[in-house]
Design brief:
- There is one protein chain.
- This protein has 24 helices and twelve strands.
- By secondary structure, the chain is an alpha/beta fold.
- Strands 6-7-8-9-10-11-12 form a seven-stranded parallel sheet. It has a three-stranded mixed sheet with strand order 2-4-5, with helices on both faces. A two-stranded antiparallel sheet has the order 1-3.
- Strand 8 (372-380), helix 19 (391-395) and strand 9 (399-403) form a beta-alpha-beta unit.
- The longest helix is centred in the N-terminal third of the chain and has 19 residues, at 160-178.
- Bound molecules: zinc ion (ZN) (2 copies).
- Residues 307, 309, 378, 494 line the site of one zinc ion.
């Protein structure tokens, strides 16, 4: 006997009903199960010790449900539920808990869009994928997005992009309230780590602040470190560095005296200033040893925006809107890469629609010159590593981003050879989001990074740093190896609407952590050089 209480029994029956609905089983059975679950969830009645006959007498509970209750009391579950769970991916079961979508809609998402986790579902909302499904609209998509974001927030972890603004506003507010400029973000948020579980703030305050109250306001755990005007920069460097960085720079050898800046403190240690993003005790220490700390990339180094979607596939804006906005922001070029035909779920482009888009690009280019739209495509890397479309069509593009979107469940060997085959295709210019990971959503498929980067080096293929704050893929830890092999990294927003060009900023944040220099950043090159590179790559 287990000690399942009425509430737990109701949960099990309810889940069974939802799973049966997901798998389109007998609607009458589903109805009686969910009715029973609903009634039990509202009652205080203790079912423990009741016999089958006694249970059957309760309103809404017939013979078969009474038997299930007894089974649950004996084993903690039912065979029926176990069988349903066995044929449903765990992530899909989790999707049943997302507010705003019932089992029928979850079934559509699973069967038609092949979404198998809450993380994938959230990203699909960002790509406007849900709009293609019958019965879904912008409103449903928005509800789903908010519900998941809320759930993630409650799990206590956040993408950097989701809390950066809140954190900065908090700092400004504290500066005002405490009447001092000595308030700063510190810790992981100052190092711009991709995923955070708290906002850390160093401040000078005569009294302790209530972290609970500030956390509630921010919607994330806020942790304060207290300092004084004398020790402020000493404390700032100490709290904003990973322990390995402090050890590597022999921080403890510096006297705790007044420093006028962090630079002055590094100087005391006979070191150049190390940007906060780098203070991980990982890449920067070797660079310091070799006296080769590079100047880091900055947003203003970027000259163009590659890998973007329009209404032709799954973007929200028209080609012209995307181009005008890009030009307004001061960029020299825009690479349009709508989805290729295999990506049916994303309204991938047929051959006819490619020709239509190319015509429109040519007209716009006349109008917008010297700004230029480059004709690209985000070609699916098919299961065997080949690209979508025939050679004739592939030739018609200026460049091709090759990415994996389907069949993500692969061994490292399979994933690596699939990618390498795509890299070796002479029409591949850029390898898109190399691992397919979604931060806080799903891990990427495993790849042998060195072999992939070596193949890019051998074939003159650029690697994408997909700058969507959920992707940030390739991981910044591999940037030094890319640079060592001469492989350029392109910071691409993968924008599905014009305001998403801003995501390049998050790419720059992590690129800095990876010590990317502007001369190794592909889209820091001017239009002429970018075009020359694309032509050279395909041997023309
Ligand atoms: Zn993609
Ligand atoms: Zn894309």
């Amino acid at each position: 006997m287990t000690t399942a209480n009425t509430e737990e029994i109701a949960d099990i029956l309810g889940l069974t009903a939802r799973l049966m609905e997901l798998h389109e089983e007998n609607p009458f059975k589903i109805k009686s199960l969910s009715n029973a679950a609903f009634r039990l969830s509202k009652t205080q009645m203790e079912l423990h010790g009741l016999t089958q006959e006694e249970l059957e007498k309760i309103e809404g509970i017939g013979k078969s449900i009474a038997a299930k209750i007894i089974e649950i009391q004996q084993s903690g579950t039912t065979r029926e539920l176990q069988q349903l769970l066995e044929k449903t991916p765990a992530g899909v079961v989790e999707m049943l808990d997302v507010k705003g979508i019932g089992p029928k809609k979850v079934a559509q998402l699973w069967n038609e869009l092949h979404i198998e986790s809450v993380g994938e579902l959230l990203y699909a909302c960002y790509e406007n994928r849900l709009l293609d499904l019958k019965g879904f609209g912008v409103k449903t998509q928005d509800t789903v997005k908010k519900a998941i974001e809320f759930k993630m927030a409650n799990a206590g972890k956040f993408h950097y992009a989701a809390i950066e603004k809140t954190a900065m506003a908090l700092v400004e507010k504290l500066k005002k309230e405490l009447h001092t400029q000595h308030v700063s973000l510190t810790g992981e948020i100052r190092r711009k780590n991709e995923v955070l579980d708290k906002i850390e703030i160093l401040l000078v305050s005569p009294e302790k602040l209530d972290e609970m109250i500030w956390s509630k306001e921010a919607g994330i755990h806020v942790k304060f470190y207290y300092s004084n005007h004398e020790d402020y920069y000493y404390d700032l460097l100490q709290t904003s560095s990973a322990p390995a960085h402090l050890e590597g720079i022999q921080f403890s050898s510096a006297p705790k005296i007044h420093y006028s800046s962090e630079t002055a403190l590094y100087k005391q240690l006979n070191l150049p200033y190390v940007e906060p993003e780098l203070r991980e005790g990982f890449l920067e220490l070797e660079a310091l040893r070799k006296n080769e700390l590079p100047g880091l990339i900055d947003m203003k180094d970027l000259k163009g925006v590659l890998h973007n979607h329009t209404k032709y596939s799954d973007g929200l804006n028209t080609l012209e809107e995307m181009a005008q906005h890009c030009k307004t922001l001061g960029y020299e070029y825009l690479g349009i890469c709508d989805h290729s035909k295999t990506a049916v779920y994303a309204n991938g482009l047929s051959e006819e629609r490619i020709i239509e888009q190319h015509r429109e690009i040519e007209q716009l280019n006349k109008k917008l010159a010297p700004f230029k739209i480059l004709k690209g495509i985000e070609s699916d890397i098919l299961n065997d590593g080949s690209l979508d479309y025939t050679v004739d069509i592939l030739k018609s593009f200026d460049f091709i981003v090759a990415s994996v979107h389907q069949n993500l469940k692969m061994t490292e060997e399979k994933a690596t050879s699939r990618l390498i085959k795509a890299i070796e295709n002479p029409y591949t210019s850029i390898l898109g989001h190399p691992t397919g990971r979604l931060l806080l959503g799903r891990p990427g498929y495993p790849i042998h990074h060195k072999k992939i980067i070596d193949a890019c080096a051998a074939n003159g293929v650029v690697i994408e740093l997909n700058a969507h704050p959920y992707r940030l893929d390739i991981d910044w830890r591999w940037i030094p190896y890319c640079m060592e092999k001469g492989v350029k990294v392109s910071i691409n927003p993968d924008a599905h609407e014009k305001h998403a060009y801003h995501d390049m900023y998050y790419g720059v944040c992590v690129a800095r952590k990876g010590m990317l220099t502007s001369n190794m950043c592909f889209n820091a090159m001017n239009l002429q050089d970018v075009e020359a590179h694309f032509l050279k790559r395909r041997g023309t």
